[in-house]
């Protein structure tokens, strides 16, 4: 079963309402109340477990009591729970925990990805430079390496969440992070290409030569959209699924960072048509990922609302 552990700091005046809310929800088990235990902020400590398929409604109700402002709400995933009560809750609540999206958790995860941090910029630079060398050497292994290092899916996912949740500020911050990251990565790659050329390690003939293994990067076609779209679905499911692991390698088939690197190298050597093709490839993949991510989230949102209605209906029947 898939569960979340929630720790709440509740002002003493609100604790009775919190207890009543939790007692009336079939998704909640293992409730613990310790009066006066919290010090910062001051209040009562309330802990409980909730099956993932019912977590969003419970967390929304807690936020409705103002606990995210007057107290605190902390969530973490439960790796394993040996509990008959938990198994009964999982059977009672409609839906599958592995498919459930806990929107509050998703918002927090993607919100962190909108920050234009030094580590994000450095990862983008490293990924783009690695890809540029892979382009010149026609080495797919370096292209794959750059995709693994590239950090661009974080802000792309945040754009998708912002669109679905109608949070314009999140979309703007994420877009700025993406644009600045790619711009800086490409600018440093242009400079690096010039330096490597001056050192005699690379030259323009390497870009102009036949590159059967990597020339797809600057030759976009219909399949570019298909691959980007499928990767967007996989990436979003990886982010929302309770069973998903790390995002490393999720976008292994998408030419975002490699396309930006190819464009930068082409700019450095003044090869206009290849720079234009690479830029188009980049745009196609970014748009495809966002469209796929938004559609995936919308499907999950609709499915979650349907499960919520079923849960309400079943709860009414049982009462």
From TrEMBL:
Residues spanning the membrane: 118-137, 143-164, 176-202, 222-240, 247-270, 282-303
Keywords attached to this entry: Membrane, Transmembrane, Transmembrane helix
Keyword Chloroplast: no
UniProt-listed Pfam families: DUF389
Key word Membrane present: yes
Protein name as it appears in the record: TIGR00341 family protein
């Amino acid at each position: 079963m898939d569960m979340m552990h929630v720790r709440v700091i509740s002002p003493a005046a609100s604790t009775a309402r919190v207890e009543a809310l939790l007692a009336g929800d079939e998704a909640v088990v293992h409730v613990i109340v310790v009066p006066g235990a919290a010090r910062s902020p001051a209040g009562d400590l309330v802990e409980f477990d909730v099956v993932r398929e019912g977590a969003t409604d419970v967390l929304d109700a807690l936020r409705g009591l103002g606990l995210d402002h007057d107290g605190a709400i902390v969530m973490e995933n439960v790796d394993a729970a040996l509990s008959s009560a938990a198994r009964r809750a999982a059977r009672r609540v409609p839906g599958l925990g592995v498919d459930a999206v806990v929107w509050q958790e998703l918002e927090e995860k993607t919100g962190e990805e909108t920050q234009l941090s030094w580590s994000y910029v450095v990862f983008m630079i490293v990924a783009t430079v690695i890809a540029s060398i892979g382009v010149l050497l026609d080495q797919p292994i370096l292209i794959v390496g750059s995709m693994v290092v590239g950090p661009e899916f974080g802000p792309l996912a945040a754009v998708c969440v912002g669109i679905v949740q109608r949070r314009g500020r999140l979309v703007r911050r994420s877009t700025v992070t993406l644009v600045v990251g790619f711009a800086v990565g490409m600018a440093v790659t242009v400079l690096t290409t010039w330096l490597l050329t001056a050192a005699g390690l690379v030259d323009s003939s390497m870009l102009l030569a036949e590159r059967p293994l990597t020339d797809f990067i600057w030759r976009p076609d219909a399949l570019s959209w298909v691959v980007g779209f499928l990767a967007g679905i996989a990436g979003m499911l990886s982010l929302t699924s309770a069973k998903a692991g790390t995002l490393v390698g999720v976008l292994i088939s998408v030419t975002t960072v490699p396309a930006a690197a190819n464009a930068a190298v082409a700019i450095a050597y003044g090869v206009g048509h290849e720079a234009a093709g690479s830029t188009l490839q980049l745009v196609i993949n970014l748009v495809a990922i966002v469209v796929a991510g938004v559609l995936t989230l919308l499907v999950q949102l609709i499915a979650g609302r349907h499960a919520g209605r079923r849960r309400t209906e079943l709860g009414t029947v049982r009462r």
